[in-house]
Predict the structure.
Amino acid sequence: YLASKGNQFKNKRVLIEAIYKKKTEKDKQTQLVKQAELRRQKNQDTRKRKTDKKFVADETTVGTGATATTGKK
């Protein structure tokens, strides 16, 4: 509003275009932030699932390996 009163814009159309540009830039920024947050969350969940899966697999191999070695002795 103050910029329009300060005679920065040539006419009303240019003022409205500038307002829409600012709004779209702001919306893009918020959308990018949301996308980044979702990507971080997804990667974190995937990492956790992989470590849990690996941990379970390691427990089962350790358990079977111990019985196999005791069976051989």
Summary: The chain has a mean pLDDT of 82. The radius of gyration is 30 Å. The longest helix spans residues 12-72.
